[in-house]
Amino acid sequence: MYAAVGVHPDEVGDLNDERFEYLKSQCQKDKVVAVGEIGLDYHYKREEQHRLKQHIWFIYQLNLAWKLKLPVILHVRDAHKDALRILKRHPARKLGGVIHCFYGSKEIAQQYLKLGYHIGIGGSVLQLEERAQDLWGAIPHIPLERILLETDAPFILPYCKDVIQPKLLRRARNTSLILPAVIRKIAELKGISADEVEQATTENTIRLFHLPIHET
Questions:
Q1: Residue 73: beta bridge partners?
Q2: 117, 74 in Cβ contact below 8 A?
Q3: In the chain, what is the greatest distance between 2 CA atoms, to the nearest angstrom?
Q4: What SS3 class is residue 62?
Q5: Distance CA 135, CA 104 (A)
Q6: What pLDDT digit, counting tens, does each position of 1-49 carry?
């Protein structure tokens, strides 16, 4: 097991110099392979001051990743314009990373790909067509060598209202058990085999995070 350490944009209001020093110390542990998840989240209405804090701590954590030569795991929700502006100007982009739980269009994906980032695909791809249409349209245009698999557990459940009662659905948790279905959906959208997707995304993960694992 390997770890990423970072402060989610929703939680940066609790950050201060002392906590950031603790964060730095954790990022230097042997099995920490990335800084994340970090980024910007504009989904919920907040004071402009909170957005400013998000920007400041996002840049601080990018600085940390650059100093430690670690890739990043990026959380960007309804904030792609600002996130891309920051990432284009920051040298941490040279270390790579992944846009976690990507749920955007082909055009947005291409901007991150140009900067050298990978695209993380998880439960979002198993939603209904009206919710996942942009993502379905983007996946055929994302090179297989730039896709990573994920769950975003415990959130982003596949569409399952037809098989789980509403009362039980509220208690349901997303887990890694969805990964075979994510692989099959990516394979379907790209017109390749599930084995190809599984093999490539495994290799991508090992390469991006510099894991001391050798495929046999």
A1: 36, 98
A2: yes
A3: 52
A4: helix
A5: 6
A6: 999 999 999 999 889 999 999 999 999 999 999 999 999 999 888 777 7
Give me the residues of the chain with pLDDT under 70, please. Answer: 214-216
Contacts of 41 (CB under 8 A, 6+ apart): 8, 9, 10, 54, 75, 76, 77, 78, 79
Residue 96 CA to chain centroid, in angstroms?
A: 12
The answer to whether the CB of 3 falls within 8 A of the CB of 28 is no
40 neighbors 87 (Cβ within 8 angstroms): no
Which pLDDT score, from 0 to 100, does residue 172 have? 80
Token pair listed for 185:
């959906």
Phi/psi of residue 77, nearest 5 degrees: -130, 115
Q: Kindly report the CA angle at 15 between 12 and 68, in degrees rounded to 5? A: 90
Q: What is the pTM of this model?
A: 0.92
The answer to whether the CB of 113 falls within 8 A of the CB of 93 is: no
d(CA 36, CA 22): 15
Please report, to the nearest 10 degrees, the dihedral formed by the alpha carbons of residues 176, 145, 80, 76 taken in order: 30
Tokens 């769950």 -> residue: 151
